[in-house]
Amino acid sequence: MNTDQLKKEALELRHAKHQVIKTALNANMENAHDLATVYTPGVSAPCLEIKKDEDLSLTLTWRGNVVAVISDGTRVLGLGDIGAAAAMPVMEGKSALYKRFGNIDAIPIVINTKDKDEFIHTVQLLEKSFAGINLEEQAQAMFKAGSSLAGKTAEDICFQDFKQFTVNDTVFGVGQVNSMSEEELEEIKATVLPEMEKTRQNHSLDMIFFMLTNIIAESSELICSGNEAREKIIGAYDLEDNAQKLMLKGVVSRKKQLVPALVSALQQ
User: Fold this and answer.
1) How far apart are the first and last CA of the chain?
2) What is the DSSP string of 207-253?
3) Who contacts 206 (Cβ-Cβ below 8 Å, separation ≥6)?
4) CA distance 209 to 215
5) Do residues 91 and 110 lie in contact, with contact meaning Cβ atoms separated by under 8 Å?
6) pLDDT in tens, 199-237
7) Which residue among 31, 111, 114, 259 is least crowded, i.e. fewest CB within 10 A of its CB?
8) CA angle 45, 51, 55 (to 5 degrees)
9) Which residues are identified as catalytic?
């Protein structure tokens, strides 16, 4: 392929189309009834359901099939620091790839700041709008550097986002941390794992589980402590008995995915 010719055609395409992706309706909007179902007053029903359980936004709205493709424009496809606005064609192109090859809707977002804390805070505020977030390499580094877990003890990390459950006579708890960095998750694991048994005993739990969720990979590694805790997970997810890591591919939700599987295993 002639690179110069491809660049010329890419520019002509965008002059003609103005955009390479667009949103489309996925519901009928033919009459007043359709409008009232999609919008007000009908829309209040899913709103109130999501208010009771925020995870439902993944199934009752487009959020469950939408990712954000985000850049700050400082390291864009080998072009270097070209700025947020100039990064948009690459983010838009990435979004088109998601749709073409994965049938996943993706929204290109550029954030016009080079301030680490401002960038991180902005991405955190967007979290409830998307199932996942794809960050450029530089942005991933910025996000990791600003982790809110820095300096916290193993117990602090365990109980930062922790839920306790009882099934029959078994009391167990599940903590979770989400990150976009595999390296950061490994660091958190190294901090939490040696202290899990002591934490379990301190809180009078029969079993304790901790989800290390990789948002980008859409998977979780599970670490645990307690009599038969590991065996219950292996049985629930049909994992190898000698597995070095308890990797749960596609499992990112504690409430909708992990806890129901655990409850079922404990009831058997």
Assistant:
1) 60
2) EEEEEEEETTTTEEEEEEESTTHHHHHHHHHT--TT-SSEEEET---
3) 170, 171, 172, 226, 227
4) 18
5) yes
6) 999 999 999 999 998 876 778 999 999 999 999 999 999
7) 31
8) 105
9) 39, 94
